[in-house]
Amino acid sequence: MTDSTIDRALTGLDSATAARIRQAITAPGFSGQLTEMPSTAAAQLLPLAAAFSVHPISGFAVGAIAVAASGNLYLGANLEFQGMPLHATLHAEQSAILNAWMHNEHEVQALHVSETPCGHCRQFLRELSNSETVGIHVGAHIYTLSELLPYAFGETRSKGNGLLDSTPVALEAVKPNPNTSQQRAINAAQRSYAPYSRSPEGFVLECLNGQFFSGRAAESTAFNPSVPSALVALNQRNLSSSRTVAIATATAAKLATAINNPLPFASTLISSTSNAEIKVVQMDAR
């Protein structure tokens, strides 16, 4: 991301706030999280979120900001992959929510989006246990999910059973190996949200600069809005200071008895961005 891109994205903010944000997003450990920022700044930060968009197919950048109950703000942007089917795209709303989830937030109170959420994203947001109270901000309007999706598919998730606040599962490798990436992938899989397939999965990317990015499965009751672990990991890399650093290794953790197989999609997805081969570890429930 160039200095001029950052300058354009921060236009409208006061100089002190803009300087603080610039310092945060250019720091080596930036991970798409902004702390000690007032929630009222979220709408003004949408151009910054959209600057992280990768859109070689649509040419259309969308930004989103998730406001967590902790007060932290989480960037989100649409992520497209040239040469991949359109359904491989991650939408900005999903990106922001998943970013908060991967930072171990348990509740999002508001979601700011630069464009009106599509039906795909509205259905995905139904997986939040507080989906009925999340304020969805689009321009000057604040919507509830029931206003945007009056005839939703599936049941409302109860407290403690939603995407952000569900209970982890205990998993271990079928053939234990002290390899760091293998254990990271298993750790990610344990926090999967997979209430419909009961098939948790984890994914870890290691970049050439030694930075690791984890992902885990995030399912939707409508299936198609579900996000596989490989795409979640790529989202975390894209929202970081290592977004342009080449991927050195990739590790997938898959339940040995899983009724679905995430590996073919993950293999094709990773090959569209990297030459890294995916190492696979099979898991069992403890």
UniProtKB/TrEMBL annotation:
Top-level division of the source organism's lineage: Bacteria
InterPro entries given in the database record: APOBEC/CMP_deaminase_Zn-bd, CMP_dCMP_dom, Cyd/dCyd_deaminase_Zn-bd, Cyt/Deoxycyt_deaminase, Cytidine_deaminase-like
MF annotations from Gene Ontology: cytidine deaminase activity
This protein's UniProt keywords: Hydrolase, Metal-binding, Zinc
EC number: 3.5.4.5
Domain CMP/dCMP-type deaminase: 37-156, 176-286
Pfam families documented for this protein: dCMP_cyt_deam_1, dCMP_cyt_deam_2
Keyword Hydrolase: yes
Coiled coil: none
Oligomeric form and interacting partners: Homodimer.
Similarity comment text for this entry: Belongs to the cytidine and deoxycytidylate deaminase family.
Protein name, per record: Cytidine deaminase
Organism the protein comes from: Coraliomargarita algicola
